[in-house]
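Table S2 (text version). Query chain:
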Amino acid sequence: MAEVTVEDMFDQGIERYKNGEEIASLIPTFQEVCDRAPKSSPAWTCLAWLYLLDSKPSQALKAAQKAVRLNPQDAQARINLAIAMLETAKTGVRDHVEVASQLMLAVPELNEEVQQNIEDGLKRKPNWKSLTRIQGWLFESE
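Corresponding structure-token output:
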């Protein structure tokens, strides 16, 4: 039997997330993807998002920091980092929101993707104050 590739694990994890699987059961999958592909910014970005949804901001902060270090041009990684920083009372949040905003202006598809992710986050975790604040900072001027 063929071994499941990291890419397959990642894709299956995304599918399971889209199908509404419990967040806590997805975290080990994405943790394993990150362990097996430690330089995968998308994997770290997803892991950070899952930790945020699961109300684990300290773990989210570490994962988001790795994602941003691996790919500073990833708007969602920056947003995850900003949310984790808000939830752990760290300073420097605005800088990451500004960079994400500039990236979203430069690449219009990112704007739509980020909006969809925020809407998804608020559906999965209603009254998420940190996400609502970030949403306001990114989209109030529209």
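Notes on Table S2: Helices lie at 6-18, 23-36, 41-53, 57-70, 75-87, 93-106, 108-124, 129-139. The two ends are 52 Å apart (CA to CA).
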